[in-house]
Automatic annotation (TrEMBL):
Belongs to the enoyl-CoA hydratase/isomerase family. CDD domains: crotonase-like (cd06558). It catalyses: (3Z)-dodecenoyl-CoA = (2E)-dodecenoyl-CoA; (3Z)-octenoyl-CoA = (2E)-octenoyl-CoA; (2E)-tetradecenoyl-CoA = (3Z)-tetradecenoyl-CoA; (3Z)-decenoyl-CoA = (2E)-decenoyl-CoA. The keyword Isomerase applies. Pathway: Lipid metabolism; fatty acid beta-oxidation. This is Enoyl-CoA delta isomerase 1, mitochondrial. It comes from Mytilus galloprovincialis (Mediterranean mussel).
C-alpha cells in the first residue's frame, strides 16, 4: 500500500497522545476504538490556512493513526466556524525566506501523499469554505459531505498563480477532464449545490447533521474488509501519487522559482490587500 511512500518520510513529532485523544496546537483528534473511527478537527485560527507546521501536524496525525491497529477510518473536519480551510497560507508564499519556501512545499507534497494514499478510509466533513488547498484536502479524501452555503474549488488563477499538476490530477480524478479544465482556467469556486451537481462533493446535509452523516457513511466504509478496501483505493490512486513521487524535487524547485518571480509576488501582494479590504467593508 502506501508503505513504500511512508517509509521515505520520517515526520516531525508534535502531536501528543492521551489515551484515545491526540492534541496539537492546531489539531484535535479523538479515536473511538469501538468503531475504529477517528475524528480530526482542524483548529488553526482564524481560517485553517496551511502553513509549514500545520501541514506537518496534519501529516503526523495521519501517520500516528495509521499505526494505531484499532483505527480504520478518519473523518476530517474543521473546528473553525464557517471555514473548512482557506487553503495555503499565502504568507508562506509572499515575500518568502527561500529555505522555508522549499520546506513548505515539501511539507505540502508529503501531507498530500500521506492523505491521498492512506490505507485508512477518509471522509471530509466540509463544514465551511474550502478554497484551493482546502479543496485539495477535500478531494484527497474517499468521500465528501458538505454543508450548504459555502464554496469549494481550485481558485488559484484568481491569485495569479497556477494549481500544480497534482492538484489538477486529483481534481480531474474527481470531476473529469473538461470540468477541471473550465474550473482551473476560471479559478471557479463552486457553491455547495453546484459542487454536488458536478460530483465535486458526494452529499449535502445541514451543518447540524454533518457529523452524524459522516459517521454513518464511515460505518459503511469500515465494515468492508480492510485490506480489500485499502487495496482498491491504491488501485485507483497509485498512478497519480507516483507521478508526484517521481518528481518531488523538481516540483519543489519549480514552485520556488515560480513564487520568487516579481510578477507572482505582485499578484500575491495584491490578493492579500483585497482580502484585507474585503474585511474592512
Ligand atoms: C507552480 C506552483 C504555483 C503555486 C501553486 C500554489 C497553490 C496554491 C494553493 C492555495 O491554497 S492558495 C490560497 C487560496 N486561498 C484563498 O484564496 C482563500 C482566501 N480567503 C478567503 O477567501 C476568506 O478569507 C475565507 C476563507 C472565505 C474566510 O472569509 P472570512 O470573511 O471569514 O475571513 P477573512 O476576514 O477573509 O480572513 C480572516 C483573516 O485570515 C486571512 N486569510 C484568509 N485566507 C488566508 C490565506 N489563505 N492565507 C493567509 N491568510 C489568510 C485574512 O487576510 C484575514 O487576515 P486579517 O485581516 O485578520 O489579518
Amino acid at each position: 500500500m502506501a508503505s513504500s511512500i511512508l517509509r521515505r518520510f520520517i515526520p516531525r513529532k508534535t502531536t501528543w497522545m492521551y489515551g484515545q485523544r491526540m492534541m496539537s496546537s492546531t489539531i484535535d483528534v479523538s479515536v473511538d476504538e469501538q468503531t475504529g473511527i477517528a475524528l480530526m478537527k482542524m483548529k488553526r485560527k482564524p481560517v485553517n490556512s496551511l502553513n509549514l507546521e500545520f501541514l506537518q501536524d496534519i501529516r503526523n496525525t495521519i501517520v500516528t493513526l495509521e499505526q494505531n491497529k484499532k483505527c480504520k477510518g478518519l473523518i476530517l473536519t474543521s473546528d473553525v466556524p464557517k471555514i473548512f480551510s482557506a487553503g495555503i497560507d499565502i504568507l508562506e508564499m509572499y515575500q518568502p525566506n527561500e529555505e522555508r519556501l522549499h520546506n513548505f512545499w515539501r511539507a505540502l507534497q508529503d501531507m498530500w501523499l500521506q492523505l491521498y494514499m492512506t490505507p485508512l478510509a477518509t471522509i471530509a466533513a466540509i463544514n465551511g469554505h474550502s478554497p484551493a488547498g482546502g479543496c485539495l484536502i477535500s478531494i484527497s479524501c474517499d468521500y465528501r459531505i458538505m454543508a450548504p452555503n459555502y464554496t469549494i474549488g481550485l481558485n488559484e488563477t484568481l491569485l495569479g498563480i497556477v494549481a500544480p499538476f497534482w492538484f489538477k490530477d486529483a481534481m480531474c480524478n474527481t470531476v473529469g477532464y473538461r470540468e477541471t479544465e473550465i474550473a482551473l482556467a476560471l479559478g471557479k469556486l463552486y457553491s455547495t449545490d453546484e459542487a454536488l451537481q458536478k460530483g465535486l462533493v458526494d452529499e449535502v446535509v445541514t451543518s447540524e447533521q454533518i457529523m452524524e452523516a459522516a459517521q454513518r457513511k464511515m460505518l459503511e466504509y469500515v465494515k468492508i474488509p480492510n485490506m480489500a478496501r485499502a487495496m482498491s483505493k491504491q488501485l485507483m490512486r497509485q498512478e497519480t501519487a507516483d507521478k508526484l513521487c517521481s518528481t518531488q524535487d523538481s516540483d519543489v524547485q519549480n514552485f520556488v522559482n515560480f513564487c520568487l518571480q516579481d510578477k507572482v509576488q505582485q499578484s500575491l501582494g495584491f490578493y492579500l490587500e483585497q482580502l484585507k479590504k474585503r474585511k474592512s467593508k
